[in-house]
Task: structure prediction
Amino acid sequence: MKNIIKTVCLLLLSLGFFMMQAQEISIPLSDVAIMKAGVNSKGVLFGQSPQQLISVLGNPTKVEDFFFEMENTTGKAYIYGQSKFYFLADKLESFDIYDPTIAVGTVGGSAYKVGDKLTVKTERIKIGPGNTYSTHVTKSFKNYPLDTKAGIDRNLIYKARSYANVNNSDYYVNILFDQYDKIINITLHGN
Result:
């Protein structure tokens, strides 16, 4: 009987753990402003114009035509170093940021950029009699859920990722982390 109770408790704990891992959050669009790193006084939001992007980041390195397959039409890609900002009908549609000079966050509030690190918390937990301890490491990034399953996305090998839906839209922010717990890519794209 004790073994059955232990098994049921273990299953319930495991189910709770996996449900927590699968949680998604939604963030307001205002939390996804594009800013020059270190200057959070003005930013550009999804749906705004190329002129607004230029007023925040300066002139792009290059502007190219970009074909939007789902819409079957051509828009523009504004390129800043390795980062790209995609405009459809003169409105910001999505972005891929690989450059630490560009930040994402809330205008006048907190922001993050390529190169920023996960928060790592290490705890020593007593697990037995005497001086028997275990070390428990927890990693997090702001209030975003963190998936520590490694993978490949955008031809980048990542060790962890954070993901958040943008409120009232089909868009999401995806943040990839490398083996050193540093951000290597920030994207905003539609589902």
